[in-house]
Amino acid sequence: MPTPESLPFWAGTLQGELRLQRCEDCERHYFYPRVSCRYCGSPRVEWRRVSGRGRLLSYIINHRMSPAAAGQQPIIALVELDEGPRMMTNIVGVDPDPDLLALDARVTVDFEPRGDQAVPVFRLEASAA
């Protein structure tokens, strides 16, 4: 459920935008949403649309089936966004095979509907060959 602090984030996902808070004093982006900057404590924060691009830092392939996974093996990942913050997410659009999931691989955000919300997930970017 969205909270007052996270409402702009979830409103953005429904519009296909990844939005993060940015401190107006120290000029750093951060995630998860909160009322003041996680770095300097300033209450002067704003919401900004960000690139939705980053890199795959870590992942695990969930081999335990759950009803929510609908027979799939979700790839649970830690992604570092180009703007700096890190997000827990899922990697989608690729088989759950470690040979296909290189650390530091470039990723791009996508959004999957889940009930009344849209959840940010990430896809591997095509390699520049």
Q: Topology, please?
A:
Blueprint: H1 7-14, E1 19-23, E2 29-30, E3 45-49, E4 53-61, E5 75-81, E6 86-92, E7 106-114, E8 117-124
Parallel strand pairs: 6-8
Antiparallel strand pairs: 1-2, 1-3, 4-5, 4-7, 5-6, 7-8
| Main sheet characteristics | 5 strands, mixed, barrel
Rg, Å, rounded:
16 Å
Average pLDDT score: 93
Q: Which percent range describes the beta-strand content?
A: 35-45%
Order of helix and strand elements from N to C terminus: HEEEEEEEE
Structural class: mainly beta
Overall shape: it is: globular
Query: Ranges with pLDDT <50 over ≥5 residues?
Result: none
Instruction: Compute the number of helices.
Output: 1
Which percent range fits the helix content? under 10%
Tally the beta strands. Answer: 8
Structure description:
With 129 residues, the chain is mainly beta. It contains one helix and eight strands. It has one helix at 7-14, and strands at 19-23, 29-30, 45-49, 53-61, 75-81, 86-92, 106-114, 117-124. The strands form two sheets. The protein has a five-stranded mixed beta barrel with strand order 4-5-6-8-7. The longest helix has 8 residues, at 7-14. The radius of gyration is 16 Å and the shape is globular. It starts with 6 loop residues before the first helix and ends in a 5-residue tail after the last strand. 22% of the residues are buried.
Key structural traits:
1 helix, 5-stranded mixed β-barrel, 129 residues, globular, mainly beta, 3-stranded antiparallel β-sheet
